[in-house]
Amino acid sequence: MSFQDSLKELKDIDFADLDMQQIGVWPASVKTVLLMLVFIVVLLAGYLFKVKELRHQYQIASNKETSLLQQYETKAFQAANLQAYRQQMLELDETFGALLKQLPKDTEVPGLLEDITEVAYASGLSMKAISLQPEKVSEFYVELPIKIDVIGDYHDFGSFVSGVAALSRIVTLHDYSIEAGNGSLLNMVIEAKTYRYKEEAH
Prior knowledge:
Blueprint: H1 3-12, H2 28-80, H3 82-102, H4 109-122, E1 126-132, E2 136-137, E3 141-152, H5 154-165, E4 171-180, E5 186-197
Antiparallel strand pairs: 1-3, 2-3, 3-5, 4-5
Helix pairs in contact: 4-5
C-alpha cells in the first residue's frame, strides 16, 4: 500500500467506530499511525527521564572541570612564582625589622623627649611643658602619647612640626589646639604619639 493510499484510507475511517478492545482488527494505516505515536511518546519520555538527567550531570561535571582548571592555573602560577614570593617575604622581613628599629625602646623614651624639646627650641618655640601620658596597648604595639605645650607663632609651629617629622624615630602628631597667648604669641597644645613594638605578640 502506497503512502497516498494510506492517507486516503485514514480519511475514510470513522475514528468513533474504532473499539480499543478490537485493536487487532483495525486497519493497517491506523495501526501504523498508532505505533508511530507510541514510538514518539517513548522517545520523548526517554529524553525527559534519562537524557535530561544526563545533560544535568554533564553540566555539573563541566562546571566542576572549569573550577578545577581555574584552581590549577592559580596554583601553577603560584608555584612558578614561589621563588619570587620567598624573596618578597625576605624583603618584607627586612623592612619590618628596619621599622621596628625606629620604634623607641623603654630606655630610649627620655632621649626622645629631649629630641622633641630640642626641635621645639630650634624652631623658636618656648616649651611650657612636655609629659608622657598613659600607654595604650594594641595587639602588636604599645602607643606612647606625649602631651606638648609650647608658645610661639604660626611660623614656629610649622617649623616644629617639620622638625618632629624629620626625627629618626616614628612620631606622629595629633589633636592640636591653638589659643591666644601673651601679646602676639600663641599657645599650642599638641599630642605626639610614638610607638613601641609589643615583643610578646611576635
